[in-house]
Amino acid sequence: MKRLIIAAGGGGDAVAAAMLHAALYGDEEPGVILTYAWDRLLIDPVPGPRGARDFTGLRPITRTVSAVPAEARPIAPAGSTLPLLAAALPHTFALLDPGQGTVGITCQLEELISHLEPVSIDLLDVGGDILARGDEPTLKSPLADALTLAAASQVNAPVRLLIAGPGLDGELPPDELRPLLGPLVHTLTAKDVEPISSILEWHPSEATAMLAATARGVRGTCEIRDAGLPIPLTDEAPRIHEVDLGEALSRNSLARALTSTTALDEAEAHSRDVCGFSEVDYERDKAAKRLKDQPLVELDAESMFRQLAGLDAEALSRGVTHMTFRRITEALNLSGSQLVDLRRLLISERPEQYDETLWRLRRPREVTAQSPMPFGGT
User: Fold this and answer.
1) Integer-rounded Cα radius of gyration of the chain
2) How far is Cα 350 from Cα 104, in angstroms, rounded to an integer?
3) Which pLDDT belongs to residue 226?
4) In terms of CB atoms within 10 Å, which of 68, 106, 202, 343 comes out highest?
């Protein structure tokens, strides 16, 4: 009895899909998680999503859908978290390839549904930007979600749209999302997080990290991204709500515009028309700027802690209680390859500030007085 969960935006949505499966279907056999290979530039320096041609070692499931097993590898210089997820979790991670636009994704969905005959199909979005109209000033990454919404609306099978952690992606304010949400399906707890706890030690997703942290009881305000966007960590954050798929489509003007697209370039063009931008363009610009302006620097513990003290103090003055590790990495102008090392160093030297996947801010007098060890020390 297979369950199919579609991770609407790829990245952290795939991790959250595993958490959802544990929460709702934990006693059943592992599920199939259909997801983009679309990671942040911290993991994948190549802008945009990866398709089947960007991997070696994929395992065919249907004519157009392949699984990404643990032994699969992205072809350099591309990167992907999917092989690591496949190695750490029992689920099958199937690759959602948007290269042929919504038409191609719809074909992939139909083939996979016909092959699996799943007992249920959930379309999961962490944060809720899949419900965006397209003109919101805070919207940053609507394309992936709009493509999956457009495709899921066309398959001849019942698809349940689920929103986890309303507002945690920083794209739509919780007050705007609240009246759009349907019935409460589940409130995540610390037990639901256990199956993915080891993944949260290295995965860069900010929204899913905050979702897990709030499920474990963390409350406050967390800064995310390079811009330091503040996200409220409230009792609403670990909730999962159902939303009518048709109502979501009628609201999402970009998804409606993408219905008949047959190429990712075409989908990008629609995003520029409807939303005024393409998130892949943003990734291209950011990647180019990094190559030009951000030489790889050695992670120096003493300098890093000095800079972090200033960063913490500024954030505390704004009422912030937590930061994501991605926020710290980018604020300190470190490369994505240094994120895991930075995280390890911070937790080793300041374990009292590690708060369930997030960095908890402390005023100087609250930090244990000790000199940081040189990086790599024991």
Assistant:
1) 20
2) 48
3) 84
4) 68
Query: What is the distance between the alpha carbons of residues 101 and 324, in angstroms, rounded to a whole number?
Result: 32
Domain positions in the chain are 3-188+238-257, 301-366
CA-to-CA distance for 254 and 165, rounded, in angstroms? 22
* Cα(194)–Cα(152) distance, integer angstroms: 29
Cis peptide bond upstream of 77, omega within 30: yes
Cα distance between residue 31 and residue 2, in whole Å: 6
375 pLDDT tier (thresholds 50, 70, 90): very low
Alpha helices in the chain (DSSP H): 12-25, 82-88, 101-116, 143-152, 174-177, 190-193, 206-215, 245-251, 253-257, 264-275, 279-293, 301-317, 325-331, 339-349
Is the Cβ–Cβ distance between 156 and 20 less than 8 Å?
no
Q: At what angle do helices 264-275 and 143-152 cross, to 10 degrees?
A: 110
- Structure-token match 């390890």, residue found: 344
> Counting every residue, how long is the chain?
378
Q: DSSP readout, 13-79?
A: HHHHHHHHHHHHHTTS---EEEE-B---TTT--SSS-B-GGGEES-EESSSS-EE--TT-EEPTT--
Tokens representing 83 are 């092989």
Query: Tokens 């609306």 sit at which residue?
Result: 153
The answer to pTM > 0.90 is: yes
- Structure confidence by residue, pLDDT tens digits, 131-153: 999 999 999 999 999 999 999 99
Element (H, E) at 164: strand 160-164
What's CA 228's distance to the chain center, in Å?
17
Q: Which helix (H) or strand (E) holds 186?
A: strand 184-187
What is the DSSP track for 220-244? EEEEETTTTEEEEE-TTTTEEEEE-
